[in-house]
Amino acid sequence: MIRFENVSKRYANGHYGVIDINLEIRRGEFLFLVGPSGAGKSSLIRLLYREDVPTHGEIYLDEFRLSQLRKRQVPRLRRQLGVVFQDGKLLSNRTVYQNVAFAMEVVGASSHDIHKRVPQVLELVGLSKRRNNYPHQLSGGEQQRVGIARALVNNPVYIIADEPTGNLDPETSFGIIKLLNEINRRGATIIMATHAKDIVNQMHKRVVAVENGRIVRDEARGVYGYEP
Amino acid sequence: MSLSSICYIIKETGRNLVYNTWMTLASVSTVAISMFVLSFFLVLTVNMNHVTRVLQSQVEMRVFINPHVPRTQEMTLLQESRHWPGVKKVQFFTKQEAADALKKEFPNQKDLLTLISKSNPLFDGYNVYTKNPNQIPALASRFRKQHIVHNVIYEGQVVSRLSRLSVVLKWAGWGIEGLLGLATLFIIVNTIRLAVFARRREVSVMKLVGATDWFIRWPFVLEGLTLGLAGAIVADLVVGQGYHWLLVEASSALPFWPMATLHQVMQKTVDFTLGGGLLVGGLASMVALRRFLRV
C-alpha cells in the first residue's frame, strides 16, 4: 500500500511541485493521474520512486518511509517499482532483449533466471519476434512496450508510468493501455499519469486529478474531466 | 556478489576500455612513463646500494704497526680488538705478506718490485672489517690511541658519500615521481570521466531499476585499476629488457663494475610499479566517481 500524508514538495527555486497531498493507493489498484501540464503529476511520481524527497509530510510505501530512507536503501525500494517513461529511456546500442535483460543483470540476477524470464516478458508485451532488433528499428508503440517489459521484468509490486502514451497515436495508445490492464489483472498495481482523455473515460478506473499541486478530485470510477 | 554480477562488471569494464580506445592508450602510456621514471630511480638506487655493499665487504680499514714491535704485542692487540664493539673481523698481516700482495697487484711496476725486494719498507698490520661503515671513524681513532700503532688508513668517505648521494637521489626521485603521479592521476580521472559520460543513460537506467551504488561504480573503479596495472606492466617490460641489455653492455665495457643483478633490480621495480600503478589507478577512479558520477 502507498500512502501520502500531507506531502508537500518545494523545489530549490521556491516553486511548489505538490502541496499537501493526501492519497492512499491499495495494492492491485489501477489509478489514473490526470491534470493539466505542470499541475504536479510528474512531481508526484518523482516523489514515489524517490527521485525527490518531500519537504513536508511522509510517504509510506509498504514497509518503506520514503523521507527516512537512507541513500543506500533506495535500491531496495526501487526494486519494488517498475517505472515507465514517455521517452522509454531505452539504451540505443542494445537490442530489445539486451535492454530488458540489462534491468535484471544490474540487480544481480543469475544468467539462468535472465534466460528464463526475459522471453516470458517479451511474450507478454508481444515483442518476441523483435527481440534482436535495436530501438531505432522499432515503432513508437513497440519502443514503449520494451520500456514496459523492462519495468516488469524484475516482478515489481508497483508499475509507475509517466505519460507512457504521450508520443503515441490513439490506436497504439489503446494497445499499451490494454497491456497495462493485463499486467494489472495479473496483480501489479498501476499508477499512470496521462493526458489521454479517451482512454481514461473508457477504462472506468480510479481517477485522481491534480491542479496547481493539489488533489482536486478523486473518483473510484472516474472520467478525465478536462477539455483538451 | 554473485558470479554473474562479477562477469557483468568485467564485461562492462572491457566495454568502457574499448569504447574510449584513445583515452585508454593515453592513460596506459602516461602510467607507463611515470612508472618508467620511478623504475629508473629504483634501478639507480638498487645499484648504488649494491656498490656500497660491495665496497663495505672489501677491506675497510688498515691499521699499521710501528716497526720493531714484538710479535707478542701485535698478537695481544689483535685479540683485544676483536672484542671491540662494531668490529666484525680483524686479520693480521706481516710486512712480508703486504709486500707479496703489492707484487701481485702491480706485477709490471719494476721499480716498486726491486725497492720492496731489497729492503721491505712496509709495516705489519691488520685488515679491519666493521659491522657498520658509520663506526669506521670511531674505531680508527681507537686504534690510533694504541701506542704500538703507527697509523690508520680507511676509505670510509667513499661509502658515506655514496650513502649520502643515495639519500639525495631518493628524495629527488620521490619529488619527480610525485609530479608525474599527479599528471597520471589527471589523465586517468579524465578517462573515467569520459566513460561515465558515455554511459550516463545506462547509469540512469541502472539507478531506476535499483542497482546498488557499488554495482554502478565497480566497472569504473576496475577501469582505473586496469589502466594503472597495464601501464605498470608496460613499464616493467621495458625496464626488464632495458636492464638486461645494460647488463650485457656493461659486462664488456665495465667488466669490474659491480652491477646489481636483473633479479635484484626487477624484484624491487615490479613491487613498486605494480603497487604504484594500482594506487594511482584506484585513486583516480575514486576522484572521478566522486566528482562526476552522481549515484
Automatic annotation (TrEMBL), chain A:
Asked if the record carries the keyword Membrane, the reply is yes
Query: What GO biological process terms are annotated to this protein in UniProt?
Result: cell division
Q: Which SMART domains match?
A: AAA
Q: Which UniProt keywords apply?
A: ATP-binding, Cell cycle, Cell division, Cell membrane, Membrane, Nucleotide-binding
| All residue ranges annotated as the ABC transporter domain in the record | 2-227
The subcellular localization recorded is: Cell membrane
* Single GO molecular function: ATP hydrolysis activity
Give the main localization category.
membrane
Per UniProt, subunit arrangement is: Homodimer. Forms a membrane-associated complex with FtsX.
Q: Which family does it belong to?
A: Belongs to the ABC transporter superfamily.
Name recorded for this polypeptide: Cell division ATP-binding protein FtsE
Q: Which organism is it from?
A: Sulfobacillus benefaciens
UniProtKB/TrEMBL annotation, chain B:
One Gene Ontology term of the biological-process aspect is: cell division
Q: Where in the cell is it found?
A: Cell membrane
Q: Which InterPro entries match?
A: ABC3_permease_C (IPR003838), FtsX (IPR004513), FtsX_ECD (IPR040690), FtsX_firmicutes-type (IPR058204)
A GO cellular component annotated for this chain's UniProt record is: plasma membrane
Q: Report if keyword Metal-binding is assigned.
A: no
User: Which part of the chain is the FtsX extracellular domain?
Assistant: 59-152
| Topological relation to the membrane, as annotated | Multi-pass membrane protein
Q: Which UniProt keywords apply?
A: Cell cycle, Cell division, Cell membrane, Membrane, Transmembrane, Transmembrane helix
Highest taxon of the lineage = Bacteria
Q: Which residues cross the membrane?
A: 22-46, 171-196, 216-239, 272-293
Checking Pfam families in the record gives: FtsX (PF02687), FtsX_ECD (PF18075)
Residue span, ABC3 transporter permease C-terminal domain = 180-294
Q: Which protein family is it in?
A: Belongs to the ABC-4 integral membrane protein family. FtsX subfamily.
The record's PANTHER family line, in alphabetical order, gives: CELL DIVISION PROTEIN FTSX (PTHR47755)
Q: Its biological function?
A: Part of the ABC transporter FtsEX involved in asymmetric cellular division facilitating the initiation of sporulation.
Full protein name = Cell division protein FtsX
Species name: Sulfobacillus benefaciens
Lineage, top ranks? Bacteria, Bacillati, Bacillota, Clostridia, Eubacteriales
